[in-house]
Amino acid sequence: MDKFKIQPKVNDCFSNMFKCYKHVMRTFVLVVGPLQVISYPTIQWIGIRTSLPLPSSSEVFWQIVVYFIIEDFSDYWIHRMLHAKWAYKKIHRVHHEYTAPIGLAAPYAHWAEILILGLPSFLGPVLVPGHIITYWLWFILRQLEAIETHSGYLLPWTPTKYIPFYGGAEYHDYHHFVGEQSKSNFASIFTYCDYIYGTNKGYRAHKQVLEKAKNL
Description:
Elements: H1 14-37, H2 39-46, H3 57-82, H4 85-92, H5 111-127, H6 132-149, H7 169-178, H8 192-196, H9 201-215
């Protein structure tokens, strides 16, 4: 697998990975856990269906697509806000401790960031409520996407490479690699926001340097 590693010179020791695991589990228990308790009345209030009939496959597909687009656009702006000097120092700095991210580092963050960046994920189901099955599938897919983009590996067999405008692991890895000074690649899923608002210039320049180095 080393040949697919984006930053091959960086290897996390077991103690560092276990530290990440403990932090994530503590956050899940203390922050995500209470949210789970109030999730059902919230789902009812939003208008998400929990009874039969089950949604059709086309309904599930198009709602998931809409959820991804809504989440990606709103997450882009909140992520940019978290890179403001105060927000980065007080909140977002924790997530950037991993300059060469690993899969488990996807939810490794300050508790406030978990809440703040959780809002875009709920925005789609709030605006376009569907069935509970769609709701569950959406969060499963969103978490899998976050794990992949933080994996630190550019796997040639991943099906996500066929998704138009999809960023992926290499794209987000650059954002972590630059760290605090990063003004590039804020988008969590797709690349169009970074392209439209000019926040992928650093990444494009970086790719050009790498291409030139290969051709030498």
